[in-house]
Amino acid sequence: MKYASFEAAGLSSWGLVEGEDIVDVGEILRDHVADLKDLIAQEAYGQALRARASAARRPLSTVTLRPVVSKPAKIFCVGHNYETHRQETGRAMVGHPSIFLRFADTLTAHGAPILRPKESASLDYEGELAVIIGQGGRRISEADALRHVAGFTCANDASVRDWQWHTQQFTPGKNFPGTAPLGPWMITPDEIADLQAVTVTTSLNGEVMQHASVADMIFPIPVIIAYLSTFTSLSPGDVILTGTPGGVGAKRKPPVWMKPGDIVEVGIAGVGRLVNFVCDEA
Questions:
Q1: Which end of the chain is more exposed for a tag (fewer CB within 10 A), N or C?
Q2: Domain chopping of the chain, boundaries
Q3: What is the DSSP string of the chain?
Q4: Closest to 179 in 3D by CA, of 250, 128, 107
Q5: What is the SS3 assignment for 109-171?
Q6: Which of 254, 250, 277 is nearest to 122 (CA)?
Q7: How confident is the prediction for the chain on average, in pLDDT?
Q8: pLDDT tens-place string over residues 100-159
Q9: What φ, ψ does residue 69 adopt, rounded to 5°?
């Protein structure tokens, strides 16, 4: 199934994506399930399917999509998790995933702008597969990790590189508002036959800039979930950006920075296509 968060007629809701329509299940269940994060926390998928029959259908073209999970308690990001990206950055091999965090107000939606901040023109793309946690937990084993996944979506970990490189800490360059598109929807794990065969492709103005298989990750998704849940409890709706392939703009010669008017797309086979345009922050 595909679940999406959206706005229509000034109201926030969520629903099931079917073809070119969204079934507004959130309107039916408004008194019981507040949003998609609440659906995940309650594991109320059965309620959603039962409500589907009487819910209004809205063409996707008539609604405004929102980030799949608008207010996750935690957004984890994994750095240098594809070998091609590790090599292009000259990073040494490490024994554990490199983890940094994003704030929820960095999220933006499919079809919405990525904001280039006033402080920098070094805005880079990073297409990624994102994991949305379903059942939370602590010290989750690698063997059980995928059972804790509610679904997958597309992400763009757009980075303000000069601020990222101020020190060895990534936080400033990864947390400018409106720089982390997430969407367009969450697809449930049963829709993906072979997770390792999934490919991540990033295009800028129609030109392919990144392309790799999930199988090329240095630390696979079960390893990431097990590692994160060792030092903190994972909660329903938490988001994990699992790393970007090689081909980032910063390592091209000359560097390729996103600029106002650019269109950037993150296509993930079997998951979806996240499309955004770039504009300057007001």
A1: C
A2: 2-65, 75-280
A3: -EEEEEEETTEEEEEEEETTEEE-HHHHTTTT--SHHHHHHHT-HHHHHHHHTTSPEEEGGGSEE--SSSS-S-EEEEES-BHHHHHHHTPPP-SS-EEEEE-GGGEE-TTSEEEEPTT-S-EE--EEEEEEE-S-BSS--TTTGGGGEEEEEEEE--EEHHHHTSSS--GGGG-STT-EEEEEEEE-GGG-S-GGG-EEEEEETTEEEEEEEGGGBSS-HHHHHHHHHHHS-B-TT-EEE----S--GGGSSS-----TT-EEEEEETTTEEEEEEEEE--
A4: 107
A5: CCCCEEEECCCCCCEECCEEEEEEECCCECCCCCCCHHHHEEEEEEEECCEEHHHHCCCCCCH
A6: 250
A7: 97
A8: 999 999 999 999 999 999 999 999 999 999 999 999 999 999 999 999 999 999 999 999
A9: -115, 115
Half-sphere exposure of 131 (CA within 13 A, CB side): 26
**Cα separations in angstroms, 143 against 187, 219, 224, 234:** 21, 14, 12, 16
CA-CA-CA-CA torsion sign (166, 172, 177, 180)? positive
* CATH superfamily membership of 75-280: Fumarylacetoacetase-like, C-terminal domain (3.90.850.10)
The tokens of 65 are what?
């999509």
CA distance 20 to 39: 22
- How far, in Å, CA of 149 to CA of 225, rounded? 9
How do residues 212-238 score in pLDDT, each as one tens digit? 999 999 999 999 999 999 999 999 999
| CB 224, CB 240: distance < 8 Å | yes
Distance CA 179, CA 112 (A): 10
Q: What are phi and psi of 97, to 5 degrees?
A: -60, 145
Which among 43, 101, 38 is positioned nearest to 71, based on CA atoms?
A: 38
**pTM of this prediction?**
0.97
